[in-house]
Amino acid sequence: MKNRAILAVVCSIIPALSGFLVAIYLYGLEGTPGLVRWMPKYARLFVMIALAGFTPALVFGLSALAHVFLAHRGAASFAAPATFIIAVIISLCCTAAYGLGIRAFYLAIHADPVGLPPIHRYDPAIDRPLVHLAFAADPHIGHPAANGAATEKIVDTVKNGGYDAFFILGDIGEMGYPGTDFENAARLLANGTPIVTLMGNHDSLVGGGYRYRKIFNPDLYFRIDSGRVHVIGLNILWDEGSFDKTQRAWLERNLSSIPEDDTTIVITHAFIRASGYTEPTSKMDWFDSAALIRDLAPMLEKGGVDLVVSGHNHFMEYLEAPGTGKPATGYAIVGTMGGKMDPVRTHVSDCSKWYLADQTGFLDVDLSGGRMKLTFRDETGKPLHEILR
Ligand SMILES: [Fe+2]
Ligand SMILES: [Fe+2]
After folding, report:
1. What is the pLDDT of residues 72-86, one digit of tens each?
2. Rounded CA gap, 342 and 286, in Å?
3. What's the CA-to-centroid distance between 145 and ligand 1, angstroms?
4. What's the gap in Å between 254 CA and the centre of ligand 2?
5. Mind giving me the DSSP string for 178-192?
6. 339 CA distance to ligand 1 centroid (A)?
7. N or C: which end of the chain has fewer CB within 10 A?
8. For residue 149, what are the contacts with CB-CB under 8 A and spacing of at least 6?
């Protein structure tokens, strides 16, 4: 009886602990805390994964109850040993499912992609200097409502437009894993304009970070120097959650090392300043990030950054930082590379200068002649709005 009790405790604790650890591991994957913060409905998935580990403990409890009940009734205690054996089997199956499941998942998200055409990542040592640049974000390749034709047209227009580099600012695929969204994106982008990419929140899911780094860009934040033009890529997946102390210190060092008269462009996936809307289910505000406006925007605006280009919101917008003197840091939103369009904004940022909903396209930045000319274009290259800075 005592041995049976010890066995019951061991067989209860091991799967419960396994479930807890698996849930912690999955929650800790890049981009997942942000997912839960912005879409709280997904929290229940992790709770369910953890709670399933308590199933054997529950069955052992029922077994003990059956034993007490049948002994009290004077009935043969056949049912009690039977439920106990079932509980032991469930415990073994449960533990094996956690162990084998997480092992298979780990191997799958760390599998090296094979058979993909090489992607031409922009390299200032080899490629043309950065003078004529294209920016777009959020093609969401693989999403059923994505406008794949617009995505393909933008890639084609940029390829034939004489651009020196194409900056694609995240949410390249609808999901980093599972599926083949990245593979399809890589095939589309092969043999085109040299690209520079950022990882978006969708690319990071679920455990998509390894595949993203392998296929598109090993660095989540980086600096590209092309003469007196500097592009700084930041890792901002959802919000301030990924802008940690290490990245902040790196940014401070880099901004302070760039001469004031040089041109500095910062790219991020998630927006800092932007108009937007309140998402009806989660009630989360997809506009002006209070934390990033407090903690990051002053560094950029006082640090000589000329332009910040972001995606995440699926519309076009141009904004200018308030009260920063000459010239104000410009902000552009270009999450218009094919992902399902956002609803029309219900919040207008104080910094908003121009806004266009429901239009796919990209941003053209021309740095020739010692000035910066921004042109929002549709997928065919037709100009929609120009800003001369
Ligand atoms: Fe997106
Ligand atoms: Fe996004």
Report:
1. 666 555 556 777 788
2. 10
3. 12
4. 25
5. SSSHHHHHHHHHTTS
6. 6
7. N
8. none
